[in-house]
Amino acid sequence: MVSPDITLETVREAHERIAGFIHRTPLMRSRSLNALMSADVVFKCENLQRAGVFKARGAFNAVYSLTDAEATRGVVTSSSGNQAAALSLAASSRGIPAYIAMPKGALKSKVNAVRRYGGNIVWVESRGAVPTSEEYEATAARIQDETRANPVHPYNDRRTIAGQGTCALEIIDERKNLDFVLAPVGGGGLLAGVSLVFKALGANTRVIGCEPEMADDACRSFRAGNIVPQRDPRTIADGLRTSLGDLTFSLISHNVDDIVTVSEEAIIGAMRLIWETLKILIEPSSAVAVAAALERKIPVSGKTVAIILSGGNVDLDNLPWRANQ
Questions:
Q1: Hey, which residues are catalytic here?
Q2: Residue 67 CB contacts under 8 Å (≥ 6 apart), including other chains
Q3: 278-296 confidence digits (pLDDT tens)
Q4: Is the overall model pTM greater than 0.90, yes or no?
Q5: Closest CA to 309 of 45, 28, 54, 57
């Protein structure tokens, strides 16, 4: 069942709450990319959002939903980087502590961002190369027990989902009657929030989730009708290595039209192409949705399309296409 307390009105309230803290990111276009995709495409540039990622929306909504008494205890989350930085930024703006469970293998650029925003990092111990969702959550739970901080789940949280959905309100305000909207999916907070808004306000728009072939749990879950856990993600898109949560899965099952997957080669190629055409940097997780359109995983030819560029926190010392030179 879809949770009745995550509604269009919830998202609108979130947008009003965070309006003074986030950027209203631009929609960009490229004639070259339109020609390559044979479509009329706009790119919602959340890579230009505060903290360089759409997650700032949910983080600010969660932090400013707290009462003053709750806020004094701070907040805690688990994240490989983007949620960590976004929540650290939101917490610092309210003058409260943020405790972050991060994997030791997190990108240096994302670790630096958390420290720059004042977040307190606690490393996640893992049996494998990449921590499982259970290992992330166990570390966050331990921090909560020790600090009494308020938990803010990076995606499976009503406040997070509502905040992420505000991105869709801005798209619809500028571009009505879209045929498709494409968004990357990892834990599903962005896709859940965006799909909720589009099904309420743009019923004719098909909402498509985009995922790496090497971390395809959301696609498999969508097809199976139940959550299929992510066990061994091997994708460059580090922001999409998590499993869906029960809240995000419920909303996605109800509101999303399809989930498609793309290859690692296509992700890297799309990331570079956006730099060459739009002259902006996007991280691999963002490039997944671009790759899906370029590879014609969705029938976009002749259609109007919005693609959400979810973030731009790139490891500049290790640009992925350099390995192919």
A1: 55, 310
A2: none
A3: 999 999 999 999 999 999 9
A4: yes
A5: 45
